[in-house]
Design a protein that fits this description.
Number of strands: 7
Strand order of the largest sheet: 2-1-3-7-6
Number of helices: 2
Order of helices and strands: EHEHEEEEE
Strand content: 15-25%
Shape: globular
Structural class: alpha/beta
Distance between the termini: 13 Å
Radius of gyration: 14 Å
Largest sheet: 5 strands, mixed
Length: about 100
């Protein structure tokens, strides 16, 4: 799993999450599975005008890097259909934003 985070506060949150996330995922999945959590810090929202563009960019990156699951973190407010967005989740694409 990759935590892809905007620089500064989102990266700090991702690093704290990564410390415990692999163990918690393993506990919940049972069957002796192991999880690796990688944190990458890079500007996600610098060139993004809307949620669909950001989501497409992250999905393209996920495919290019062959990541199983990517969780993207940003501290900028996101909007969809005129409403504030807390999370955008796609099981099909292995993506959470």
């Amino acid at each position: 799993m990759t935590l892809l985070a905007d620089p500064d506060a989102p990266t700090e949150v991702a690093q704290r999450m990564a410390r415990v996330l692999a163990d918690r995922l393993a506990e919940q999945s049972g069957q002796g599975r192991r999880f690796e959590v990688e944190v990458l810090s890079e500007p996600l929202t610098a060139r993004t005008e809307d949620l669909s563009t950001l989501t497409r960019r992250i999905m393209d990156r996920r495919r290019a890097e062959h990541w199983d699951i990517v969780v993207a973190l940003t501290d900028l407010p996101l909007h969809a259909h005129g409403l504030k967005l807390v999370v955008d989740l796609s099981h099909e694409h292995g993506l959470a934003l």
